[in-house]
Amino acid sequence: MSGPVALPVPRTAVGQAGLAAMLRDPGRALIALDFDGTLSPIVADPAAARAHPGAVAALRRLAPLTGTLAIITGRPALKAVEYGRFDLVPGLIVLGHYGRERWQSGTMTAAAASPAVAAARRELPAVLAAAGAPDGTWTEDKGDAVAVHTRNAGQPAEAVELLRGPLTGLAERTGLLVEPGRFVIELRPAGADKGSALEDLATERASGTILFCGDDLGDVPAFRAVRSLRAAGTPGLAVCSGSAEVAGLADQADLIVDGPGGVVAMLDLLADAFAARHRLGLEGR
């Protein structure tokens, strides 16, 4: 009979120390994850995204064993809850629009809508037309942000580069920030990103350890936040849901797993380890 499968080992010493601290005291851990590309496979149509088949079960196992379990996403919080079926995970916190929205136990709170987004929304069709946006380019209205996708264009990478300048100019005129992603450029309000959302949540919850898992350029601020929290004395690790499309993010990670399937496997192994420690009465020791 084979023994239990070991958790993957972070490649950095600080990541190893963060994981060890989390395993010692899971009741004070903050585990936060991105949605698209992390818990959900990337798809051509964002409205078709759904969580990995094992994600909800893994999160439900972790929820009663972990101090705080959270999703931090650029999507509207309610869309993430719907597509991920996160209403089935007791106690889960979903921070949408980079922290401008919060869903918890069925209750939504949100910052006031940004007039800058409305201004950009009005200008966007003319900007895309003037830039010669290729066929297959399309716009996603996210309510508190607008995103231009090129994944369905004939040459998606070239289309992103073609539109980057004009969209950056639109953002500057309207007072928005540019958020790059996988064949997408998003214009969103200033004042929130995944890093500040993670740090604020860690402070609110008095978290003793931090784990953040993401896959894309929008997750870089959260990776920086993990490093900042470590420097301030809170152990933690940054985990990358590996992808050939965003290879650069892996360079900043303490641990790399194989896409959403690898993320779910890691969550299951954490749940196994946390449960074993709880059964032995060792939590916090």
Characterization of the model:
There is one protein chain. The chain is α/β, with parallel strands linked by helices and 285 residues long. It has helices spanning 13-24, 55-62, 77-84, 115-131, 156-174, 194-204, 220-231, 247-250, 259-279; strands at 29-33, 68-72, 93-96, 101-104, 107-110, 138-141, 146-149, 176-181, 184-189, 209-214, 236-241, 255-257. The strands form 2 sheets. The chain has an 8-stranded mixed beta sheet, with helices on both faces. The longest helix has 21 residues, at 259-279. It is globular.
Separation, N- and C-terminal Cα atoms: 30 Å
User: Major sheet: size, sense and barrel closure?
Assistant: 8 strands, mixed
Write down the secondary-structure element order. Answer: HEHEHEEEHEEHEEHEHEHEH
Q: Report the count of strand segments.
A: 12
Give the percentage of residues in beta strands.
Answer: 15-25%
Strand order of the largest sheet: 5-4-3-2-1-10-11-12
Number of helices: 9
Give the low-pLDDT segments. Answer: none
User: What helical percentage do the residues reach?
Assistant: 25-40%
The helix-and-strand class reads alpha/beta
Radius of gyration over C-alpha positions, nearest whole angstrom: 19 Å
So what's the overall shape?
A: globular
Mean pLDDT: 93
